[in-house]
Amino acid sequence: MNTGDDGPAGAGERSPGVPERLLAAATRLFAERGYERTSVQEVVDAAGVTKGAMYHYYASKDDLLYAIYQRLLTLQARRLADFAAAEGPIADRVRAAAADLVHTTVDNLDDAVIFFRSMHTLSADRQAAVRKERRRYHECFRGMIEEGQRAGVFRADVPADVAATQYFGAVHHIGRWYHPGGELSGPALGAYFADLLLAGLRPD
Amino acid sequence: MNTGDDGPAGAGERSPGVPERLLAAATRLFAERGYERTSVQEVVDAAGVTKGAMYHYYASKDDLLYAIYQRLLTLQARRLADFAAAEGPIADRVRAAAADLVHTTVDNLDDAVIFFRSMHTLSADRQAAVRKERRRYHECFRGMIEEGQRAGVFRADVPADVAATQYFGAVHHIGRWYHPGGELSGPALGAYFADLLLAGLRPD
DNA sequence: GCCACCCGACCGACCGCGCGGTATGCCTAT
DNA sequence: ATAGGCATACCGCGCGGTCGGTCGGGTGGC
């Protein structure tokens, strides 16, 4: 009934709807100027609505930020589940998951920038929820590396936890320097990153 | 006679001095709560002075933040110069520089956290100055990797730029998860990180 | 040796502004 | 008639920054 329909003045165009437009505007502005330096007024102006509309759909500015976190967490969790359930040699699966993480990060650069810059502005309980979800992601990835260590295809003299943390750090940092449209595409970067990870884990 | 002497003009170094206390308090609070969520009043309260004192030594809150950046940049530049001027096999020098970067980061965790979280709050020209300094650091490190590639001790099928960027990202992220006093010491973490970097760069 | 003077260090009360958030009501579709 | 979707006007607060004033010790003239 109301899923595909949108409000104002006929359904002639596929207009994204007010909540989605607010979320998109907030994502762009938060990534560009930072959460604290972006006023609610600027967000609603960019979305073409007023504060009344925003506070109709979101309880607070913090709520808007949390919606961005939820969107990225949901996406990551879904992708991770796919790779965890896949079959094949463990080294290939780790490589695919590592490259895909880079690919996904490049495709959602704004989210990635916001994620690691504005975590401390979330309320304590929401921050804990985000950390919990991230921890699940981390432990699943680490588990794949440990599986490779047990199988003997990865070196075991470096803790899987350290290797996973190092790689995640590098990926999280992508949002700080990567510019889409440059000479390095997302998949190409993912291939390089995954290659360096796998080579680093190769036994002597 | 001069043991009781304190103050900025004296040679005695007993008391840290008001500017230093302000910088230390700001560093701790900015790292803990974030720059925007820390008021000037909180900083001066933690330093045991008043706003008048702070604005006597620092032109603005932004100026206080920039002082933190300058301190870290100076430290990093000095250390890198030492490793660049050192002698010995290039692989050993890269390993030493990589491990030292981790060590230094762990020893200045608050600075590291602030560095990559609050860059966007600096004024445009100061942000450019910081980026320029960081770029010099990056290019020096990249140059060492390229030297190893030319010497044949590092693989050349991955750009040195990508390898350096990946490593720096991992190091920058340390401030988000590392807790001093845990079971993993700074030097131990540095050894693991450098080991993974060197192994990733090892030729087939 | 003493006083008049001065200057930097620092205090604390104050200001204007822009922020996040709210109350209320109109408009349209059902 | 009713209810949700959204606009408009408004509020109180806490922020970064300012400014006149105080205090103490160094300095030069006599």
Summarize the entry for a quick read.
2 copies of one chain form a homodimer. By secondary structure, the first copy, chain A, is mainly α.
Task: Lay out the secondary structure.
Two copies of one chain form a homodimer.
Chain A: H1 18-33, H2 40-47, H3 51-57, H4 61-85, H5 90-107, H6 109-117, H7 124-151, H8 160-172, H9 174-177, H10 186-201
Helix pairs in contact in A: 1-2, 1-4, 1-6, 4-5, 4-7, 5-7, 5-10, 7-8
The structure holds a DNA duplex (30 and 30 nucleotides).
Overview of the structural elements:
- 2 copies of one chain form a homodimer.
- Helix content of chain A is 71%, strand content 0%.
- The first copy, chain A, is mainly alpha-helical and 204 residues long.
- Chain A has 2 domains: 11-59, Homeodomain-like (Arc Repressor Mutant, subunit A), CATH 1.10.10; 62-201, Tetracycline Repressor, domain 2, CATH 1.10.357.
- The first copy, chain A, is elongated.
- Chain A binds chain B through residues 33-34, 36-37, 116-117, 120-121, 155, 158-159, 162-163, 165-174, 176-177, 184, 189, 192-193, 195-197, 199-202, and chain B through 33-34, 36-37, 116-117, 120-121, 155, 158-159, 162-163, 165-174, 176-177, 184, 189, 192-193, 195-197, 199-202.
- Chain B binds a DNA duplex (30 and 30 nucleotides) through residues 7-8, 18, 39-41, 49-53, 55-57, 60-61.
Distance between the termini of chain A: 61 Å
Give me the secondary-structure category of chain A.
mainly alpha
> What oligomerization state is this entry in?
homodimer
Number of strands of chain A: 0
Kindly estimate the percentage of residues of chain A that lie in beta strands according to DSSP. Answer: under 5%
What is the helix tally of chain A?
10
Low-confidence stretches of chain A: 1-14
Tell me the major beta sheet of chain A. none
CATH class membership of the largest domain in chain A: Mainly Alpha
How many distinct domains of chain A?
A: 2
The averaged pLDDT of chain A comes out at 89
Radius of gyration of chain A from the CA trace?
Answer: 20 Å
Helix content of chain A: over 70%
Task: Provide the CATH architecture of the largest domain in chain A.
Answer: Orthogonal Bundle
Largest interface, C-beta within 8 A: A-B, 36 and 36 residues
Give the topology string of chain A: H per helix, E per strand: HHHHHHHHHH
Which superfamily, in CATH terms, is the homologous superfamily of the largest domain in chain A?
Answer: Tetracycline Repressor, domain 2
Globular, elongated, flat, extended or rod-shaped: what is the shape of chain A? elongated
CATH topology of the largest domain in chain A: Tetracycline Repressor, domain 2
